[in-house]
Amino acid sequence: MATKRDHKVTGFVLLELIVALTLIGVGLMFLGQWYAQQQQLSTRQTWVYDTELLISALQTQWQQTHKVPSDLSQLSHPDGSSGFVEPWQQTWQVLPQAEHLQLQIAAPNHAEARWFASQLPGARAVQEQVFIEVLEPDYSQVANAERFLHRQPQPQQPELNEMQVDLQMNGHALTNVSQLQATSASVTMVQSDLVQTSDFSATHARIEHLEVDSLISPEGSLLQLKQQLDLLQALWNSCVAQGRCG
């Protein structure tokens, strides 16, 4: 027959198990929130990148036709996809001006509009609206323009998209890079708004905010842990109610 001491020991074991599962669950929630934040940053980076491509396509068509573009549906995405990714699932509006044109799009709020405008040259935020001035391209004053590196890929001239040289930066920083691909890199510190990786391993990670849609560990999913925690909580409450756990 179990003694009162045995009941107390059982109660303490259940309590320690509940605490351990709670800590594991909180850690998994933090990791999930971090993953969701990285997904949001990736989406924002795509907005900026596709907007730069859209501006480049507008200027190219303007130069070729000598007419102010008014229909964005006629522009082709460089990768052959159906269209450009538009921020906040809104639609760009084309506003022709005297010597240039403006692109206009509505953001959910002023803070979002200010952030997006800060990512693009020639952009400004007015309340919830973002305006981007697109000037008519003029390469007539540039001699041998093919010799220069282009910011956007040139599908018809792939040799312009590559650099067959080693860069010696002489201690200077490389800034404002939208995309960088490397086989190997050795750095002292990395500070970035967005990091995408297929495999992540770290000895120590400090995370302020973490969101996740679905998280599965070798021991089970977060949902299973929550169900087990609820069951243990119910057992503990029953034990306390019967006076066997203090």
UniProtKB/TrEMBL annotation:
Superkingdom to which the source organism belongs: Bacteria
Membrane-crossing segments per the record: 12-36
Keyword Transmembrane in record: yes
Keywords (A to Z) from UniProt: Membrane, Transmembrane, Transmembrane helix
InterPro entries attached to this UniProt entry: Pilin-like
Protein known as: Type II secretion system protein
